[in-house]
Design a protein that fits this description.
By secondary structure, the chain is of the alpha/beta class. About 40% of the residues lie in helices and about 25% in strands. The longest helix is centred in the N-terminal third of the chain and has 18 residues.
Length: about 300
């Protein structure tokens, strides 16, 4: 929504069921995920509202308090307050935020401005969907869970601030539709295609092992079925590997289309400030028959 002072008001909403066992960490992850769309637009969050579903008569009220505290602490880290919200009695816990932000109209980042030659930079590793499924099945090692939780609760705040510093014009966050789904939206909006280099893609610890054991969420399988309509995979990439690339993410990173002259500056700046390493994973090309091509070294 356009305001009178050259600024835009932007708003997003997201919520989901628990992806980890710890209620405080669930609150943190849900809040970080909800804030992600605001950061992807290059905007600054200004306040949020809670959205809560909770079985108030079957689970301890203290658990709900802990979830909300996780969300509040993550909002505080983002520099905002949660000023209210709405809750319902629900058989399955759900939590998320409505987030309102603002951005100068001239600084708005969309998925419509990617140009051939732009470098694609991914700011978080893939694999949260696979790890979350393994957690539900009791098959995730503690160190795998710790790495996934650390990634999911990391705000995309730094990634967004560096976008502004490097004059980035096009980006998207990677969430439920996975890398290929969100990249396809960027390609369609910008009238371009993209090449992804599989060997450059970062994956969370344990994601490859779990995928080989066929621990794959339903959302990831649906993502690959959809992405196969517009993605050309190198012949060396089997179905398991393709599923890993299409994994449905929770609170994933930003996918940034950065001009070649600013790409190295972006990587240097973000990797100096962030504990999670961002990497170049591909490039934007002129529009081709397939929106996305996934290549390998082999």
């Amino acid at each position: 929504m356009r305001l009178d002072d050259g600024k835009l008001l932007v708003q997003t909403v997201d919520f989901f069921t628990p992806v980890v066992d710890d209620p405080y960490e669930f609150g943190q992850i849900a809040a970080a995920n909800s804030l992600s769309d605001i950061y992807a637009m290059g905007a600054k969050p200004i306040f949020a509202l809670n959205i809560v579903g909770f079985p108030i008569n079957t689970l301890p009220k203290k658990m709900l308090t802990t979830i909300l505290q996780g969300g509040a602490d993550k909002a505080k880290e983002a520099g905002i307050s949660i000023v209210g919200g709405h809750s319902i009695d629900d058989p399955e816990p759900k939590y998320g935020l409505v987030v309102t932000g603002e951005v100068k109209e001239t600084a708005l980042i969309t998925n419509q401005n990617a140009k051939p030659g732009d470098v694609l930079i991914l700011t978080k590793p893939l694999g949260t969907g696979i790890i979350a499924t393994a957690i539900k099945q009791g098959k995730a090692k503690l160190e795998w869970v710790s790495a996934a939780v650390a990634s999911m609760k990391e705000l995309n705040k730094t990634a967004a601030e560096v976008m502004s510093y490097c004059n980035v014009k096009s980006a998207t966050d990677i969430t439920g539709f996975g890398l290929l789904g969100h990249l396809s939206e960027l390609c369609k909006a910008s009238g371009v295609s993209a090449e992804i280099h599989y060997d450059s893609l970062p994956f969370l610890p344990g994601a490859k092992e779990l995928a080989k054991d066929k621990i794959i969420p339903g959302g990831t399988k649906r993502n690959l079925k959809f992405a196969s309509q517009f993605t050309e995979f190198d012949s060396s990439l089997n179905r398991t590997t393709q599923l890993m690339i299409a994994d449905a993410q929770t609170s994933g990173g930003l996918l940034v289309a950065c001009s070649p002259k600013n790409a190295e500056k972006y990587l240097t700046k973000i990797n100096y400030r962030s504990s999670i390493i961002a990497v170049a994973v591909g490039k934007i090309t002129k529009k081709k028959k397939n929106l996305i091509t996934v290549t390998t070294d082999s």
